[in-house]
UniProtKB/TrEMBL annotation:
Function recorded in the entry: May be involved in the metabolism of insect hormones and in the breakdown of synthetic insecticides.
Binding positions for heme per the UniProt entry: C100
Cofactor: heme
Family: Belongs to the cytochrome P450 family.
PANTHER family the UniProt entry points to: CYTOCHROME P450 4C3-RELATED, CYTOCHROME P450 FAMILY 4
Protein keywords: Endoplasmic reticulum, Heme, Iron, Membrane, Metal-binding, Monooxygenase, Oxidoreductase
Name recorded for this polypeptide: Cytochrome P450 4c3
Pfam families linked to this entry: p450 (PF00067)
Cellular compartments annotated: Endoplasmic reticulum membrane
InterPro entries: Cyt_P450, Cyt_P450_CS, Cyt_P450_E_grp-IV, Cyt_P450_sf, Cytochrome_P450_Monoox
SUPFAM superfamilies for the chain: Cytochrome P450
Length: 157
């Protein structure tokens, strides 16, 4: 049986794990925006109507925001760890007025799927993290897929 919505709200550490996975491997690795007016970013003057590319994949690896950025550490998303982080340091669903309107639904859907699979199976990746080759097109994905093994867990009533 799948968890109900109230139970999904209680899966706080699972949510931290999902957020950390999306930090390391954002589904959409970059976002393009067109500037509406002239602006200054750092020491650079950006004219209006300039296409700006925001690299979420790189942004999520900012050492100032995420120490040891290549390490999988779900505790980064515990409330006390993320309270003072800029809301624009982590943007797996974009940010601002053009963010994903379905991000809350997506998180609920991810919790249902991940919790359902993990209750039934142990998942083991057959490709070491350091050997993973990524293809960052419109969607970030492993270049050659990601082979895994599934081992059934004992059924618990």
């Amino acid at each position: 049986e799948n968890p109900v919505k109230e139970q999904l709200k209680e899966l706080k550490f699972l949510e931290c794990c999902i957020k950390e996975a999306l930090r390391l491997f954002p589904s959409v690795p970059y976002i393009a925006r067109k500037t509406g007016k002239s602006m200054v970013i750092g020491s650079h003057q950006i004219p209006p109507a300039t296409i700006v590319i925001i690299m979420a994949y790189c942004l999520h690896r900012d050492k100032d925001q995420f120490p040891d950025p290549d390490k999988f550490d779900p505790s980064r998303f515990l409330p006390e760890a993320s309270a003072h982080r800029s809301p624009y340091a982590y943007i797996p669903f974009s940010a601002g007025p053009r963010n994903c309107i379905g991000q809350k639904f997506a998180m609920l859907e991810l919790k249902v799927i991940v919790s359902s699979v993990l209750r039934r199976y142990k998942i083991t990746a057959l490709c070491p993290y350091d050997d993973l080759q990524l293809l960052g097109e419109l969607i970030l994905r492993p270049l050659n897929g990601l082979p895994v093994t599934l081992t059934a867990r004992p059924h618990i009533s």
